[in-house]
Fold this protein.
Amino acid sequence: MTRIALTREVSDNIGRCELTHIARQPIDVALARAQHATYEDALRELGCRVERVAGTPDSPDSVFIEDTAVVLPDLAVITRPGAPSRRAEASAVSEALRPYRQLQTIEAPGTLDGGDVLTIGHTLFIGETARSNLHGIEQMKRLLAPEGYTVIGVPVTGCLHLKSAVTRISDEMLLIQPVWVDASAFPGLDVLEVDPTEPYAANALRIGDRVLYPTAFPRTARRIEARGIEVRTVDVSQLAKAEGAVTCCSLVFDA
Ligand code: CIR
C-alpha cells in the first residue's frame, strides 16, 4: 500500500486569493513556495508519496487542493467549489485522481468545498457554510448512500469551513474551536479544545499516528502533545494569509 499526498503548486497570483474572514495582507510568493515545499517534505517524512499537480496562473487559490475533491477508500467525489473563482480548479484534480479512484461529481446548483468535509469512518460531517450549500450536501447523500456512507450537515458560524473549526487528531479525538462549531454534533468522540488565545488552531492534518500542524499555535500544540499525540510542525504563515491551513494543501489517501 502506498500513501499518496496530492499537492498543487502555489500560484504566482496567490495574492489575489479569495478571503472571507480575514483582512488582505501582502503575501511573499517566494516564501509561500518555500513553506509549501517544506510542507511537502513533512508529508514525505510522515510516509506519503507526494504527487504535485501543476497550478494554473488564473487560479490564485489552486494550492488549496483539498477543496476540489473528497477522496474516500472506494471512490472520490470531485466538488463544485462554492467560490466561482475556484471552479476551474477541479478539472486538473479530477485527472490526477482518475488513476486511483472511480469518480463522481457535484453538479450545479450544488456547491461543496472539501474543507467542509470531515470523514469519520463511514460518516461524513459536512459544514453548512457559504461554500457548501444544501444542494451539495444532498448530492453527497445521494451519491454516497449506496456505498454505505451517512452524510450529516453541521451548522458552522464565524469561519470559512467546517475543518477550520474541527479536525480529527486521533482515532477517538477531535481538535475543536468551540466558538465556531458545537461539539454535540460529534457524539461519541473525545474533544480537545484549542487554546482560547489561538482561535485558528483547530486545523490539524492527521497522517497515521501523527499530526502535521502549524508552528503558529504553540499553546494548542502543547495541548495535543499532552494527549500523547506526536506533532510535526510546519511554518505556513504565508498560506495562512490566504486563509489556508494544513489540511487544505493536500489530498491524502491510500492507493
Ligand atoms: C479560499 O477562500 O477558498 C482560499 N483562500 C482558502 C481555502 C482554504 N481551504 C481550506 O481550508 N480547505
